[in-house]
Every structure is written in structure tokens, then in C-alpha cells.
Specification:
By secondary structure, this protein is an alpha+beta fold. The chain is built from seven helices and seven strands. α3 packs across α5. The protein is elongated.
Length: about 280
Amino acid sequence: MTEKRRTPEPPVKNLENNLKAIEEQALLYAKDLARVFMERKEQERQLELTKQQLERSARITLLGELAAGIAHEINNILTPAAGHLSLLLMDRANFSEGVVERLELIEQSLMKASSMLQQILDLSRKKPEKREPKDISAILEQSLFLLKYRFIKSQIKVEKNFQHNLPKLWIDDTQIEQVFTNLTLNAIEAMEQGGTLRIATCYHPEKSTKKQPYVEILFEDTGCGIPPENLEHVFEPFYTTKGEGRGTGLGLFICYGIIEKHGGMIDVTSAPNEGTQFKICLPAS
């Protein structure tokens, strides 16, 4: 029995198969190149973000130290003034009602100034803090509950998107609640005609730029936004764009200091008439 000979494929068919194989290999190579390129771009972006954070942190630390030095000197001047005022008020029976009223107003102003200066000094000092494992969602809920009347009065809708089963964070809950309250009040003031405040939490088990898992907290409003020329200064002490008598310029500076002390990061993105978003990252281990 003779073996049936196989008819060889024509040269053109072989060439088509070869070209198809080369095309598929080139496509795979292009995909690998694109993936490597995108990974490198992401690494460069993360490095640039880290560099910007470090530069801003160094600038704010320097300004904070300068502000603390000034606060200390001013406090030294205010202390004897407050002391003498207290002595006068102890003798209030010898003054008319109008004079006593003015003295009490002066006392209130001195106490307010002293409290403001104390906040700056507290941030600059490395005091022992009361840190415990805490539920970040519960702290957010408490902060929002205390400001409920402001939301109703200002016609602001609150949208919450809290991830379930977040890990507890090792934090000073009083300080973190102060951060949440400050950011919420800023959002309310930015939405004078009403609007929406969105707050979300998310756990990132993967490593961040600080090489550890973290919890992300977002505050996003639909308010007036922040002009680009003001954006890089918002965390600096005494910097404010609010009208006279409406702000000290310390709220966001204190927020920045608290988050930094907790080993986290806080950042802001905004544009005029497009709202503002504050992003907080706190280490989860």
C-alpha cells in the first residue's frame, strides 16, 4: 500500500502564516511596551506627588515654626494685660455698668486671642497624645450629627458613602473630629446658596506612597471653589480668603498639622465654580 503524499502548502500561504505570527508577536510586544510605559508614568506621577508633598510640608513646617515663635511672643504680651484686666474686674463694684461691660468685652477678646495662639503653640510642641484604635465612620457620623442644624439652615444635602468594615485606626479621635468639623464648616461656608456635601471612605490595602495600607476620606462640596493662585497657600497659617472677621486662617493649617502628626496626608483639588475636594489618607497599620 503506497503512502499518500501530502501536498505542500503554496509559498504564499506560508508567507501569510508567517506574517500573521509576526503581527501577533508585534502586538503582544506593543502591549507589553504600553504597560511598562504606563507603569513608569504612574511611578513618575507618584514620585512627583511625593516631592510636592515634601516641599509643601517643609514650607508649612517652616511657617508653622515662625508662627509659633510669634505666637509665643504675643502671648507673653497678652498675659500681663489679661492679669491686670482680671484685677480690675474683681473690683467691678467701683465701676459703672457701662465700664464693666466694656471690660468684659475686652476680656472676651483677650481670651479668644489667647485661645488662637494656644492652638498654634500646641501644634508646634510634641506633646504626648491619647491615641487608641477608633472607628473612623463613627467619628464622621458624630461630627455630622453635631452640625446637622447648619445643614438644615444652609439648605445643604449630605451624601454619605462609607465603606463597611473599615479597619480601626490608631488615632486621637478628638483631634481627628476637629479636622472633620473644620472641613465640614469650610464646605458649608463655600455653599452660601445651598448645595451638596459628599463624604466617602475607602480602604486601600495596597501600599501607598508612605508604603503602608491606608484609609482614604473624601470631602467634596459643590461650592464656589478656590482660585488656582490661592490653592497652594490654603494650608499656610493665617492665610484666608474670607471677609474681615469671618476667619483667622488657622483652620486648614491646624488640619494639616493634625493629619501630619498622625503620619497621614491631606490634599486639596479645586477650581472656581466647580467645588472643592479634600482628600485625607490615614495609615491603617
